[in-house]
Design goal:
Layout: H1 14-29, H2 31-60, E1 65-68, E2 73-76, E3 82-88, E4 91-95, E5 99-102, E6 107-113, E7 116-123, E8 126-134
Antiparallel strand pairs: 1-2, 2-3, 3-4, 4-5, 6-7, 7-8
Length: 138
């Protein structure tokens, strides 16, 4: 006759329950840290959106001719079509076609120095100057 051994592994022990509870508490306590990392990445993405828009603007100005500077940049592209880069509300745009380069812009001014095209841009109360192209006709 065989003796049946009692199966004592039904359920969890008190130590296993306390261990899983403490791990859960540690994870929950770290959630505010992950939330702040998300905010930091969000702020960074705003800067990279501005950078991507300025790179696109520079690419559009590669073949620009007959450029006029000021609060708007007016130029002819390689096909001879006249384009304007201007501020529309808080967006830096190109018309025709309404291409949006970036947003949350307060003020802009284009100028040329040593045949280089600069954009003075005010955003979030700060003035920054960006090199966006070259006026090779000068």
């Amino acid at each position: 006759m065989k003796l049946r051994l009692l199966n004592l592994s039904d359920g969890f022990t008190m130590v296993e329950l306390l261990l899983s509870f403490s791990i859960t508490l540690m994870i929950v306590s770290l959630l505010p840290v992950f939330g702040s990392l998300t905010l930091i990445n969000h702020d960074f993405s705003v800067g990279s959106n501005l950078e991507a828009g300025l790179i696109q603007l520079g690419n559009d100005l590669v073949t620009a001719r007959k450029i006029q500077y000021g609060a708007r940049l007016i130029y002819q592209d390689h096909t001879g079509q006249e384009n304007q880069i201007r501020l529309d509300g808080d967006r830096l745009i190109r018309t025709p076609g309404y291409v949006v380069y970036c947003s949350n812009i307060e003020d802009i001014r284009f100028y040329v120095s040593d045949s280089l095209i600069y954009l003075q841009l005010k955003t979030q109360g700060q003035n920054n100057i960006y090199l966006v192209g070259s006026d090779y006709e000068r």
